[in-house]
Each structure stands twice: as structure tokens, then as C-alpha cells.
Amino acid sequence: EVQLVESGGGLVQPGGSLRLSCGASGFTFSRYWMHWVRQAPGKGLVWVARTNEDGSTTNYADSVKGRFTISRDNAKDTLFLQINSLRADDTAVYYCATDLGGPNGYWGQGTLVTVST
Amino acid sequence: DIVMTQSPLSLPVTPGEPASISCRSSQSLLHSNGHNFFDWYLQKPGQSPQVLIYWGSNRASGVPDRFSGSVSGTDFTLKISRVEAEDVGIYYCMQALQTPYTFGQGTKLEIK
Question: Which of B71, B50, B95 is nearest to A104 (CA)?
């Protein structure tokens, strides 16, 4: 059974940092592009970032470029999102997902990041 | 960025009746490999999104056959042949042809 389990969310002050993790199991993690997608409370889905199979290629939404860094550790089947310089509008549930646009798409249950004083 | 426009945004449906949701992309989503890089997702209340349809018309594993997707140029349609109570939630379309991947606004399906 495919499982994606996010962790690392929490309450952080504006300007702060967090490192989100996504542990994968049930599939060959190193064979798939991986993504982060976020959803602000009561709002729609917004794609954030992606990385290719070996982590050598990354792409970001303009709104997070320069502040967020996606990475992966294929030896540990784990995806990361380092988020810096957090702003109030970064408050959202962050989902990791695999193979968006392909036949093997799965999403985790999400981790909530709240940016507030 | 590719703009995805969904309609309707709200869809009340009587159980057992059919339903249809449309999504239009601002440009072609046809990849050189012959596939449209387009998905339909359902986000049930309190859950994460789950893929229903990929490549515009392929049902994902485990998805009931009452769900179907079709493509005509830049127009994509999701059809539910007979709506069931478990189909309530928000339906999203998404393009995966180029970054940034973009989603439609969402269509909230509710049972009458």
C-alpha cells in the first residue's frame, strides 16, 4: 500500500523557518518526481514545488522561489521542504504528492503550517 | 502560466442522477508523447485530494467506473453517470504540462 506521511508543520512566527518531511513507503520512491502542494484554510489547491527522481532538477512557484527549497533523500525514501522567511500567506496545509499528471498519483494527509505572532 | 477555468463552481445533484463538470485550459495540454497532461481530483470533506482521472480520460486505480473523463481540444469534462452520497466534495482539475502546475477553482458537489 502506498503511503506518504508528512510531518514538521506547526506554529511559527513571521520570518521564521520550518523543515517539512514526507516519508514514503509502498512504492519505489527513487523512480518518481515528487511534489509539494499547499492549501490555505478554506481555499483551493496551489502547486508549490517539484523535484525529479534523483533531486538534480527542481522547480518552484514564483510565490516561494528563493524562500523554499525542495530536496529528497532516496536512501531514506524521504522528501523535504525547507521553508524560510515565512509570511502569513504561507499559512496552509502542505501536501506531498507523487507522479502528478501521471498514472501513479498519490497524496499524503498533509501537515499544517501556521504563520502567526 | 496556464489558466484552468472550471464550471460550475457549485453543483447540487440528486442521488442516482448524472453530473458533469467542465474545465477549460488556456492552452493545449497535449504533450509530444500523445498524452494530455491533465488530471481530475476529488477532495472529500476533511481528506486530502485523490486522483480520479489522469491523462484526461484514464481512470485511476480503484476509481469506480461511474466516473469518466473526456477531452476535446482544450475542453475537459468529468462525468459521473449516477451520483452517490460518497461523491460529495470538491472536484479540481489540474494541468501538469508545464510548471507552475495549475488547478481550477474547484467545483463543490453536494447532494440535494
Answer: B50
- Average pLDDT score over chain B: 97
**Which residues of chain A from 38 to 97 reach within 8 Å of chain B, CB to CB?**
44-47, 50, 59-62, 95
Q: How far apart are the first and last CA of chain A?
A: 40
CB atoms within 10 A of CB A65: 10
Peptide bond into B100 cis (omega under 30): yes
Which of the residues A100, A104, A109 would you substitute to probe the B interface, choosing the one with the greatest number of B C-beta atoms within 10 Å? A100
Q: Positive or negative CA dihedral for B111, B86, B45, B9?
A: negative
Residue B18 confidence (pLDDT): 98
- pLDDT per residue as tens digits for the range A61-98: 999 999 999 999 999 999 999 999 999 999 999 999 99
Judged by CB atoms closer than 8 Å, whether chains meet at B55 and A103 is answered as: yes
Distance of alpha carbon B73 from alpha carbon B64, whole angstroms: 25
Mean pLDDT of A43-62: 98
